[in-house]
Write a structure and sequence with these properties.
Length: about 280
C-alpha cells in the first residue's frame, strides 16, 4: 500500500474519466471529519454492521476500493476484469504484500509473548499477518469506517480493533507495549500530528521496546502539502485528496529525538526503486 505511486497508473480514457468522476463523488460521500478521514462518514460502521454476514466481506472490499488509501494501484485492472474478481484479487494481493512486510520488517523484533500496537492499521492486513507471531495486537485507526471493514475482513481472536478518537492512545498504559509499528501513516499526517504520535509511542513502549515506523524521506523542496493552496479549490482538495508529506531526514531525526526516542537502524524499503521510503527502527532514549 504505497500511496504515492497510486495515481501514476490511472488510464486517461473516456470511460475512465466517468469512473473517476463517480469515484470522486463516492469519496466525498464517504469521507468524514476532520479532513483526510477516508471512509470516516458516520453511517459506514452502521452500514457494515446491518449487512448480513455473507455479504459483509464484499461490502467491505467495495468500500475500501473507494478510498484513495486502499486498493488504488490496480484501478486500471478494473477496466479488464469483473468488479468482484478485481476486488478478490486486490484482497489476495494486499494479504500477501502485507504478510511479506511483516515478515521482513516486524517479525525479527517479536516474541510469541509480545504485545503489539498497529498504528494506522487501515483494513487490518498487517494486523492479521502479525497476529500469528505475538500474544496481542491493538490495531488503531482514525477512521471508524475502515475499522468496521477491518473487522469484517481481518478479524482474529487476538486482535483488538480501536478507533483513534483523539485520546485513544492516552488511555493505553505507559510502558506497556513491546513493539509498535506504523506503515504508510506518517507520510500522510502533518508535522504536529507526527510529533504527537511519536511522543505517545515513546510513552507507551516498555524500556527495551521497539518502534518500526515508515517515513518518506525527501528534500524540503519535494514536500507536498495540498493545503498550501489558499483557494477554495485548494481547501476542497486538501479535504478529499490524499496528503503526502516527504520530510528531510534531519527533520525526522529531530522529531525522533524530541519524542525521547533514538534511531537504531534505517533501511530503504525498495532499494531498487530509490523512492525515498524508509523503515526506521527506534527505541527509547
Ligand atoms: C495508507 S493507509 C495504511 C494502512 C496500513 N498501515 C497498511 O500499511 O496497510 C493509512 C492509514 O492511516 C490512518 N491514519 C491517518 N492518520 C491517522 C492518525 N492520526 N491516527 C491513526 N490512524 C491514522 C488512515 O485512516 C489510514 O487507514
Amino acid at each position: 500500500m504505497n500511496s504515492v505511486k497510486l495515481e501514476k497508473g490511472s488510464m486517461k480514457t473516456q470511460s475512465s474519466s466517468s469512473t473517476s468522476l463517480l469515484r470522486k463523488l463516492l469519496i466525498v460521500l464517504t469521507t468524514g471529519f476532520p479532513d483526510q478521514k477516508f471512509l470516516g462518514a458516520f453511517y459506514i460502521p452502521f452500514l457494515v454492521e446491518i449487512t448480513p454476514e455473507r455479504f459483509r466481506k464484499s461490502l467491505a472490499l467495495n468500500l475500501l476500493s473507494i478510498s484513495p488509501h486502499y486498493f488504488g494501484q490496480f484501478r486500471a485492472a478494473e477496466q479488464t476484469s469483473s468488479r468482484s474478481a478485481f476486488l478478490e484479487a486486490e484482497h489476495q494481493r494486499m494479504s500477501l504484500s502485507r504478510q511479506q512486510l511483516i515478515d521482513t520488517k516486524v517479525k525479527p523484533h517479536l516474541t510469541s509473548e509480545s504485545t503489539v500496537i498497529d498504528h494506522g492499521c487501515g483494513p487490518g492486513y498487517l494486523a492479521n499477518a502479525v497476529s500469528s507471531y505475538c500474544r496481542q495486537v491493538i490495531a488503531i485507526d482514525i477512521s471508524d469506517g475502515v475499522i468496521a471493514c477491518a473487522k469484517a475482513i481481518n478479524a482474529k481472536p487476538n486482535i483488538i480493533y480501536m478507533t483513534e478518537t483523539g485520546n485513544t492512545l492516552s488511555k493505553l498504559e505507559s510502558s506497556s507495549i513491546d513493539l509498535i509499528y506504523s506503515f504508510a501513516v506518517m507520510l500522510h499526517v502533518k508535522d504536529e500530528v507526527c510529533r504527537t504520535i511519536l511522543e505517545e509511542f515513546s510513552r507507551l513502549l516498555k524500556p527495551q521496546g521497539k518502534v518500526v515506523c515508515e517515513f518518506l524521506v525527501a528534500d524540503a523542496s519535494a514536500e507536498e502539502l495540498v493545503e498550501k493552496a489558499n483557494s477554495i479549490l485548494g481547501k476542497v482538495k486538501s479535504k478529499y485528496t490524499l496528503r503526502v508529506v516527504g520530510r528531510p531526514l534531519k527533520r525526522i531525526e529531530q522529531f525522533i529525538r524530541d519524542a525521547g526516542l533514538k534511531l537504531l537502524t534505517l533501511s530503504e524499503n525498495e532499494p531498487e526503486e530509490k523512492n525515498g521510503y524508509y523503515t526506521f527502527l527506534l527505541t527509547r532514549e
